[in-house]
Design goal:
3 helices; single chain; mainly alpha
Length: 79
C-alpha cells in the first residue's frame, strides 16, 4: 500500500517534533499553515499521537511514532 498524500502530510508534520524531547511541542497556526498541514494535525490528534488538534506535545504513542519516522527517513536518505 503506497503512502497517500494525507500520510505524507502527517509524516512531514511528525518530523518537525524534536525527538527525544517530550517537552518541546509545536503549534500549527490555522491562518498561516497550509490546509494540508492543519488537516494533518487534526488527524494526528484524532489518532492520539499529539495532545492538541493544532499541535501541542507528543503522546507516548506519538513519541514512538516519531522515533520510527526518523529511522525511516534516515534509511531513505542514506546513500
Amino acid at each position: 500500500m503506497p503512502f497517500s498524500p494525507e500520510h505524507l502530510a502527517e509524516l512531514n508534520l511528525l518530523s518537525l517534533f524534536k525527538s527525544p524531547s517530550l517537552q518541546e511541542g509545536i503549534k500549527v497556526h490555522s491562518q498561516e499553515a497550509a490546509p494540508e498541514v492543519v488537516s494533518a494535525a487534526e488527524r494526528l490528534y484524532q489518532k492520539g499521537l499529539i495532545t492538541q488538534k493544532d499541535g501541542g506535545y507528543l503522546t507516548d504513542l506519538g513519541f514512538e511514532t516519531v522515533e520510527h519516522t526518523q529511522k525511516l527517513l534516515g534509511i531513505l536518505t542514506s546513500d
